[in-house]
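ugh ok so i messed up the first submission bc i forgot one of the chains. this is the corrected input, ALL of the components this time, i swear. 351 residues overall. if the numbers dont match what u have on ur side tell me asap before i send this to the collaborators (the ones from the other lab, u know who)
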Amino acid sequence: MAAAIALEHDAELMVRVREGDTASFTQLLERHRTSVVHFLYRMVQNQAVAEELAQEVFLRVYKSRAGYEPSAKFTTWLFRIATHLALNWIRDNKGSLQTQSLDEQILEGAERQVRDRAPSVEQKMVREARMEEIRKAIRLLPAKQRAAVLMHKYEELEYSQIAKVLECSESAVKSLLFRAYETLRARLAHLR
Amino acid sequence: MICPMQDRENAAILLDYCDRRLDTDLMRRISSHVEVCVECQNVLAAQRQVWSALDAWEPAPVSTDFNRRLYARIEREEAAGFWKRLFAPVTPVLLRPALPVAAACLLVVGTLLFQTPQEPSLGKQAGAELVDLDQVEKALDDMEMLRQMGVFAGSEGGV
Ligand SMILES: [Zn+2]
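and heres the new structure output, hopefully the right one now
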């Protein structure tokens, strides 16, 4: 029910953007910026690329405002654009996966931990090694499976939404997800 | 009930069960099955482990200047859109790709005709015009891509 209300609000905002209300675009941006950037980051595993792609997503939303019709969930449309851009980027950058260097990520993780509760160096290293295994497990999934898992796990999109984003049937999404999680279960089984 | 693991088509139901996304009746039926099925118990335990591992993956915060950069980009693109709207009604579709080239030739000729040593900034202005015309072409490509994605009203396969 809460999700339905949120959906109506997004569509309403987008209709206002279509009518020239730029403040509504700012509201949409505030509501979805973090989830879009985080989704893209987990897809491409590079913060700068993720933000660049997210800029492109919102730019395209804004540019297509004149033809917007609230016929489907706004988030489905938003993640369709984001996924399309991420899949293209992954396709074009195959073989030179530009993930952030481990050093950068260790620094990032370490900074966060200092904020948390300043754990020991050993704890930091264990935690970072674990995070790298998780990132790698996701990175090694085929791009479509990766997108499906990220939308399912972090964005909590429904199967029907993921199906529309990936342009396939709901049953295909379910089987895609089950296969992806099967791989993740095998790769991450040793983590406790 | 048939073990979900024996029916690949239906195996994803275990994910929904694990995530408590099913209605009460189905939750109860799967629960009774899981109590007696070691394979399903193992899958569920491993799945919970995967989700708990994924929960720990927290990306960095978004840059504080994200909005500012986006608005600047929108402004640039909107300026390019102005040029597109200006030329669109009078330019047949097939001629549009040639538009930047033709306009560039005009600008070059214009520059050669009117440039004098006292006007060093003219070259810069011509350069700026050329950039805008490139953007016109890019904007046309973007509109075509959006049309293909079906986000425009009345187009097929819109989401
Ligand atoms: Zn079973």
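quick check: Residues 8-56 of chain B form one domain. that seems consistent at least. Residues 116-133, 148-159 of chain B have pLDDT under 50 and may be disordered.
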